[in-house]
Write a structure and sequence with these properties.
The protein is mostly beta strands and about 140 residues long. It has no helices and twelve strands. The chain has strands at about 30, 35-45, 45-50, 50-60, 60-65, 70-80, 85, 90-100, 105, 110-115, 120, 125. The termini are far apart.
C-alpha cells in the first residue's frame, strides 16, 4: 500500500475555534467528520480533527480532536485537546487536555496535563519541559 503525501498550501480559515469573543481564531485546518487522512501531515498552524486519521501528525499550533474522531497516529503539537479516541504516542509541548469523552491509549509526553472526569488515559506519562533531556537525576561534578 503506497501512501500519498498531502501538502496544504492555503489552509481554510476557522473562525471562533477557541470560542473567545468576536475576534477570529488564527488560520487553521479542519478535517471534517467524513474526512480520512492516511499518512504524514505537517501543518504550520492549528488543526481540528473530526474524522479519521492514521499515521503521523505534526502541528506547530493547537490540535483539537473532536468527539467522534478516531486517530491512530503519533501526535505532536503545542496544545492538544482530546474529546475523541486516540491510539498512539502523544507529545504536547505545553498542555494535553483530556475532555470528559476523550480516550488516549498510548504514552504521553507533556509539560502540563489536564484530565476531566470521565476521560480515559492508558499509557505512561512523562511530564516536564520538552527540553528536559538534561535530567536532574544525572550527577554533575
Amino acid at each position: 500500500m503506497e501512501l500519498e503525501t498531502v501538502e496544504v498550501e492555503q489552509p481554510s480559515v476557522v473562525r471562533g475555534l477557541r470560542g473567545r469573543g468576536d475576534s477570529p481564531a488564527p488560520s487553521g485546518v479542519v478535517l471534517g467528520p467524513k474526512d480520512v487522512l492516511e499518512g504524514k501531515l505537517t501543518i504550520e498552524g492549528d488543526l481540528r480533527i473530526q474524522g479519521r486519521v492514521d499515521g503521523e501528525v505534526h502541528i506547530s499550533g493547537d490540535l483539537n480532536i473532536e468527539g467522534g474522531a478516531t486517530v491512530k497516529a503519533s501526535l505532536e503539537a503545542r496544545n492538544i485537546t482530546v474529546r475523541g479516541h486516540v491510539t498512539g504516542p502523544v507529545s504536547a509541548k505545553k498542555r494535553l487536555n483530556l475532555a470528559g469523552s476523550g480516550v488516549v491509549v498510548g504514552d504521553v509526553k507533556v509539560s502540563r496535563l489536564s484530565v476531566e472526569d470521565g476521560a480515559t488515559l492508558n499509557g505512561n506519562v512523562t511530564m516536564g519541559g520538552h527540553d528536559s533531556h538534561a535530567s536532574s537525576d544525572t550527577p554533575t561534578e
